[in-house]
Structure to design on (692 residues):
């Protein structure tokens, strides 16, 4: 059983409060004995407040002109008490919602009749009023007061990301800072460059054709942006593994990119097998007279070739041939084969380069790859990738290879710029300090640096719209694969246990083949792993054991219509789904502010502990689940206590227009049935309730 209520605080969150008798065992939590950012610490002076707070069941009377309050009042209590006295004197009328002085909210602290005109001492500002029945101090006295507070409180807006990082120049929100911001607005941020430790060359300005297509200066820009993933796949050198799920993109919501299964990039031989059409890199070499039609036909077989502009395909091909260093290598193979078809050729893509990756990211043909004439057989080429003439096998491109990203995204990296390398050092200034154990840039830091918006570079990545979604998903799988690879080859470091040999397993009576061989143990530090989830569950149970059942279950969902998100994307001619990273960053700032309000302002009363976990919905928006344990004297025990925070009614549109708009926009189910047979709740033309 649960009671539900939605209210709007200054963070513009839709807050769902549920009084639960159980604890969700899968939430991310930490024990109160081990503080972490997700644990809500008690306020200072809490012990003195508890000693001075009156008993909840104790009957008290009006106390005349006390020189000091009988307990330690918070700013919230003093504000509500003053507003109650103003209500008595007629300075504020709850019916019309106006006041003679500015304030964040207008509320009545006491129930009707508590401050009647018959009270001879009610005219003094020093009066301290308490009811003779059970009340909860320091919080609104009833649901009307809470609604008035929410209605009259301004929405929290972080504005535009105008703070530029002092080291890399990325535009960030001030709330994302790692330290104090100077008077001139300069600050250091960890999200973009780890406060100066990551120093990479900026992406150069794209070729004129691509720049005009991105900035809508080309007549074919609309067609290009709508089919940018198809155009990129058409000129890609590698294929993407895994299964792309397209069933959710049915037009009922914003488009999204969903990848299922293990992801990898593969490249076939230089020449296709006899009777097989050329694909991907083979299109740069084989049957180039019909190259454009072959490219369109490959996409049409997957249902993605509809609506493509053949003239734009030709112009993009010429642009890539002229500027992309990787395309020039494969064109060399075509020229060699045109002169002598019997020549055995191979391409060796170098993994390591001798130049400093912090200074240069534009490579020449000799630095990127080598054209090998003749059969190299089974020669050891180290960690380089060799693409042979016609062996019929697919070559896996490791995620740590320099060409892993530019081979698959020629429209984001039109010059064939270098991708991630394992030997990228951190900034020279920080290396000389000698206080850092890690002196190389990680893959996550590399990707995070590339996803930022700067004045000093034109963002080929951030303006890629739907291709940006694919790039972000692909980058995430790269990071996860790199972490798993490290764990696999460092089992001794994490002290992993494993079983050895088949014979030993048979002697022990093992019959399950999965228990034979070497096990790869995922440590608790791996996010999403079995031990990670188990440890967090145990921490949550420990808190529940100490403080009992949680009192509040609050949910907060990202809203793509937030002002910060809409202003950012509209200024760049984008939509919210084109920049999921901006939605996540704004949500994180608002979530941190909400948690701070719950802990410091004590909206529902002081708390003993709290925890939250963040998950992503089917459409990609983040969603937080929050649990809170209130202090014993503030727990919601009776029906009257619960009614002070929970309402099952729509707010009055005349008294609370902002709340009414929020509830009617985000809490009411959309029309379904005959009106909308494609609604997500419809199955076989009937609405159903899906139970997990």
């Amino acid at each position: 059983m649960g009671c539900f209520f939605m209210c709007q605080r200054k963070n513009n969150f839709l807050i769902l409060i549920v009084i639960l008798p159980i604890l969700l065992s899968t939430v991310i939590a930490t024990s109160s004995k081990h503080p972490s950012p997700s644990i809500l610490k008690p306020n200072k002076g809490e012990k003195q407040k508890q000693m001075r707070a009156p008993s909840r069941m104790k009957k008290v009377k009006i106390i005349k002109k006390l020189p000091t309050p009988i307990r330690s009042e918070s700013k919230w209590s003093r504000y509500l008490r003053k507003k109650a006295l103003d209500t008595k004197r007629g300075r504020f009328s709850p019916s019309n919602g106006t006041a003679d002085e500015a304030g964040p909210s207008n509320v009545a602290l006491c129930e009707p009749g508590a401050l009647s005109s018959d009270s001879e001492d009610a005219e003094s500002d020093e009066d301290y009023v308490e009811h003779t029945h059970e009340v909860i101090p320091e919080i609104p006295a009833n649901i009307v007061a809470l609604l008035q507070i929410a209605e009259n409180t301004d929405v929290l807006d972080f504005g535009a990301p105008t703070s530029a990082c002092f080291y890399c120049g990325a535009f960030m929100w001030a709330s994302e800072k790692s330290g104090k911001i100077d008077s001139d607005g300069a600050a250091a941020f960890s999200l973009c460059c780890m406060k100066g430790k990551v120093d990479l060359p900026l992406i150069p300005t794209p070729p004129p054709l691509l720049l005009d297509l991105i900035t809508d200066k080309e007549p074919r820009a609309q067609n290009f942006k709508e089919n940018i993933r198809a155009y990129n796949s058409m000129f890609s050198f590698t294929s993407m593994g895994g299964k792309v799920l397209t069933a959710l993109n049915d037009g009922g919501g914003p488009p999204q990119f969903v990848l299922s299964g293990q992801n990898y990039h593969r490249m076939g031989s230089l020449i296709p097998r006899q009777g097989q059409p050329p694909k991907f890199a083979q299109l740069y070499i084989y049957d180039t007279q019909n190259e454009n039609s072959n490219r369109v036909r490959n996409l049409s077989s997957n249902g993605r070739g509809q609506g493509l502009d053949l003239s734009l395909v030709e112009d993009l091909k010429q642009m890539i041939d002229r500027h992309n260093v990787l395309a020039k290598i494969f064109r060399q193979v075509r020229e060699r084969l045109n002169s002598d078809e019997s020549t055995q050729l191979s391409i060796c893509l170098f993994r390591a380069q001798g130049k400093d990756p912090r200074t240069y990211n534009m490579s020449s043909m000799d630095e990127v790859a080598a054209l090998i004439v003749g059969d190299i057989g089974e020669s050891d080429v180290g960690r380089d990738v060799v693409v042979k003439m016609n062996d019929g096998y697919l070559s896996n491109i490791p995620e740590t290879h320099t060409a892993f990203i530019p081979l698959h995204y020629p429209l984001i990296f039109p010059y064939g710029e270098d991708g991630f390398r394992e030997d990228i050092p951190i900034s020279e200034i920080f290396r000389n300090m000698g206080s850092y154990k890690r002196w190389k840039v990680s893959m996550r830091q590399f990707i995070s640096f590339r996803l930022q918006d700067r004045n000093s570079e034109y963002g080929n990545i951030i303006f890629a719209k739907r291709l940006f979604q694919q790039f972000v998903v692909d980058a995430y799988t790269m990071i996860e694969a790199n972490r798993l690879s490290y764990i696999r080859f460092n089992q001794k470091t994490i002290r992993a246990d494993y079983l050895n040999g088949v014979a030993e397993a048979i002697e022990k009576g093992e019959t399950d083949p999965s228990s034979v061989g070497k096990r790869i143990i995922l440590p608790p530090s791996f996010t999403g792993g079995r031990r990670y989830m188990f440890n967090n569950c145990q921490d949550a149970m420990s808190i529940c054991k100490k403080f009992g059942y949680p009192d509040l279950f609050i949910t907060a969902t990202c809203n793509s219509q937030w002002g910060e998100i809409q202003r950012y994307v509209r200024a760049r001619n984008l939509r919210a789904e084109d920049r999921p990273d901006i939605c996540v960053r704004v949500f994180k700032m608002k979530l941190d502010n909400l948690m701070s309000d719950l802990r410091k302002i004590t909206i529902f009363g002081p708390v003993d502990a709290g925890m939250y976990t963040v998950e992503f919905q089917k459409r990609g928006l983040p969603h937080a689940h929050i649990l809170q344990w209130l202090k014993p004297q503030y727990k919601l025990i009776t029906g009257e206590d619960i009614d002070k925070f929970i309402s099952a009614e729509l707010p009055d549109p005349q008294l609370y227009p902002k709340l009414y708009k929020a509830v009617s926009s985000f809490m009411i189910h959309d029309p379904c049935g005959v009106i909308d047979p494609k609604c997500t709740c419809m199955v076989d033309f009937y609405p159903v309730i899906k139970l997990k």
Residues 1-75, 88-138 have pLDDT under 50 and may be disordered. Residues 47 and 429 are 47 Å apart (CA to CA).
